[in-house]
Design a protein that fits this description.
With 452 residues, the chain is of the alpha/beta class. The chain has three domains: 36 residues, no CATH class; 82 residues, Alpha-Beta Complex (Aspartate Aminotransferase, domain 1); 253 residues, Type I PLP-dependent aspartate aminotransferase-like (Major domain) (Aspartate Aminotransferase, domain 2, 3-Layer(aba) Sandwich). Helix content is 37%, strand content 15%. The chain has 15 helices and 14 strands. The strands form three sheets. It has a seven-stranded mixed sheet with strand order 2-8-7-6-5-3-4, with helices on both faces. A five-stranded mixed sheet has the order 1-13-14-12-11, with helices on one face. Helix 10 links the parallel strand 3 and strand 4. The protein is globular, with a radius of gyration of 27 Å. 35% of the residues are buried.
Length: 452
């Protein structure tokens, strides 16, 4: 019979026995030491370092070790468990400073309704969703995406909307390729409003460089489209500096020259503005982030695209439609998959295969939660706060450079930009700083009277 004293572990074994049971290695399947040896032997490499040297170009390969904290825990055990690691990460995260951010440029604060956060964002039945290929088991998600599409058609005034795209920049680039496919073969130029957000302009330029499309960036209010080979025109509505311009005449001139018109829109502004479909836009794109999707280091968030029925086969991404099942009952399905390589291969009309399903669902549910009247109240409050700020900064001697606005002011300061920046930093506030010393301020639904 074994006695208790004979089974007492050594000190090192005792520490090993204290190792947490929820460590990464114990929870995940990875190659064992014998498997690593077999792999290296098959590849003809003496070590993992040699394998890395062969696989990773020297120009991008890190040559010094990562600076990682000591992985041992407080007991001296060589591994941290998940709970212990999360606690350590929480202590690190507490060093972050959360400022009020009024930079704008397509990214704004939003209030996520609790019912949407709890039942959609934090619900694996929703947040694991990607593309609902199997319509027979995805009717709920398809209905939620149809809701998103319907909301976008009502805001843009265009009758056909897709089930979401990646972000505003790539949506604008996809709209450009739509224009190129619609236009005459000789129309290989695309006009881009200088009032678009800089990241949107950059993405369009990058996409165009590989497609043989010449980008012309300028002021659409004074641009001459006549006789020029423009396949389309991208217009900002509102502009990145906050200006809200009358674009009907621009659209008419662009159409007379044989090109399509794309409106890059803010959906919250569209609650108060004339829909782009009513002033001549053929395509509307934008980001739905401010409809209940919190900012997360620049993304992710759902973009939207809407157009006319005659362009449906040139739309990127997916479109949810209503059909009927074998019993005659209404049934939802993915009606259009314009890019899918297993269907069209080299005839695919779009390079997009990513849909932001979860975030489109959140944005659509945000619209449903508030309803038309609630959205009008939110948009009206944002606009009223912006107008209040405009009056205040003018009274203080600064100059508001844009005559019209929805939620953004472009301000020339009366005093030193450096002093203004220091004052903002002391109050933990971020605004947009232009190269010429002017500043941009974009308000959102989180604004309070104390912040103003």
């Amino acid at each position: 019979m074994t006695t208790l004293s004979s089974t007492m572990p050594t000190a090192s074994k005792a520490l090993h026995a204290l190792a947490p049971t929820d460590t990464f290695i114990r929870r995940h399947i990875g190659p064992s030491e014998p498997e690593i040896v077999d792999m290296l032997t098959a590849l003809g490499c003496a070590s993992l370092d040699e394998l890395s040297s062969q696989a990773i170009p020297a120009g991008i390969r890190m040559t010094h070790p990562l600076r990682i904290d000591d992985p041992t825990n407080t007991l001296g055990v060589s591994e941290r468990g998940e709970a212990e690691t999360l606690s350590a990460l929480h202590r690190i995260a507490q060093q972050n400073q959360v400022w009020q951010t009024w930079i704008g440029m397509g990214y704004v604060g939003t209030i996520v309704p609790g019912v949407i956060q709890r039942n959609i964002l934090e619900n694996p039945g929703w947040y694991t969703a990607y593309t609902p290929y199997q319509a027979e088991i995805a009717q709920g998600r398809l209905e939620a995406l149809l809701n998103f599409q319907t909301m976008i058609t009502e805001l843009t005034g265009l009758p056909l909307a897709g089930a979401s795209l990646l972000d505003e920049g790539t949506a604008a680039a996809e709209a450009m390729t739509m224009c190129r496919s619609i236009a005459a073969a000789t129309h290989d130029h695309f006009f881009v409003d200088a009032g678009c957000h800089p990241q949107t302009i950059a993405v369009v330029q990058t996409r165009a460089s590989g497609l043989g499309i010449t980008i012309v960036v300028g002021d659409p209010m004074t641009a001459d489209f006549a006789g020029k080979p423009f396949c389309g025109t991208l217009l900002a509505y509102p502009a990145t500096d906050g200006s809200v311009r009358e674009l009907r005449g621009v659209a008419e001139r662009a159409h007379a020259a044989g090109g399509q018109v794309v409106a890059c829109c803010d959906p919250m502004a569209l609650v108060m503005l004339v829909p782009p479909g009513q002033w001549g836009a053929d395509i509307a794109v934008g980001s739905a982030q401010r409809f209940g999707v919190p900012m997360g280091f620049g993304g992710p968030h759902a973009a939207f695209i809407a157009t006319k029925p005659e362009h449906v086969r040139r739309m990127p991404g997916r479109l949810i439609g209503i059909s009927r099942d074998a019993t005659g009952a209404p049934a939802l399905r993915m009606a259009i998959q314009t890019r899918e390589q297993h269907i069209k291969r080299d005839r695919a009309t779009s390079n997009i295969c990513t849909a932001q399903v979860l975030l489109a669902v959140m944005a659509g549910m945000y619209g449903t939660y508030h309803g038309p009247d609630g959205l009008r109240r939110i948009a009206g409050r944002i606009h009223a706060a912006t107008s209040t700020l405009a009056a205040a900064v003018t009274k203080l001697g600064h100059t508001v450079l844009n005559d019209t606005w929805f939620d953004t002011l472009h301000v020339r300061l009366a005093g030193s930009p450096g002093g203004f920046a220091s004052a903002l930093a002391s109050r933990h506030i971020n605004v947009r700083h232009f190269a010429d010393g002017t500043v941009g301020v974009t308000l959102d639904e989180t604004i309070t009277t104390a912040s103003l």
